[in-house]
């Protein structure tokens, strides 16, 4: 009987605490006159360690212009692949982890003078590894991509370089 009374008392207390289901009116967003506003301070990319950034922003030259691009930590995507573009090179690069060491591989592609690079893709599954362009740029015939592992880790990347042959296009445009 005592347990029944305790349960009934708890039920009555719970029912009494729920008066309404309506949300309270929001307070007016008015700052007191003595308060000061502060601007949002965002750290520059140089101030934030790369290991803490999911996305980093850098710049690449595209036909003598600056073009920003965003690359995920484990991969890289530069340029656009068009319908008339072809795969110039596809290669796979992997390194097993070595304790307390950072591993770096430079992948260089140099095409003939009639080839221009229009897109680069680096697909990776490398626990904190990064891919970046260190030499050359889109719109030219050569590019160097650096693959770098995190300390004590390995990586596995597939690099695709897409481009187009421009010699025939120039001849056709001269004839028109």
From TrEMBL:
Signal in keyword set: yes
Entry keyword Magnesium: no
InterPro entries, per the entry: MBF2
Signal sequence range: 1-16
Pfam families given in the database record: MBF2 (PF15868)
Keywords annotated in UniProt: Signal
Record's protein name: HMG176
């Amino acid at each position: 009987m005592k347990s029944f009374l305790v349960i009934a008392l708890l039920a009555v207390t719970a029912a009494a605490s729920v008066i309404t289901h309506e949300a309270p009116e929001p307070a007016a967003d008015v700052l007191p006159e003595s308060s000061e506003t502060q601007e949002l301070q965002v750290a520059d990319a140089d101030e934030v360690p790369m290991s803490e950034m999911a996305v980093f922003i850098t710049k690449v030259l595209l036909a003598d212009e600056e073009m920003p691009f965003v690359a995920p930590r484990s991969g890289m995507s530069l340029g656009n692949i068009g319908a008339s573009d072809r795969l110039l090179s596809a290669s796979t690069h992997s390194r097993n982890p070595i304790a307390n060491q950072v591993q770096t591989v430079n992948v260089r592609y140099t095409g003939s003078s009639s080839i221009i690079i229009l897109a680069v893709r680096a697909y990776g599954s490398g626990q904190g590894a990064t891919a970046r362009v260190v030499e050359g740029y889109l719109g030219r015939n050569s590019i160097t991509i650096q693959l770098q592992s995190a300390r004590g880790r390995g990586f596995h990347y597939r690099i695709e370089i897409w481009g187009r042959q421009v010699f025939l296009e120039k001849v056709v445009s001269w004839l028109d």
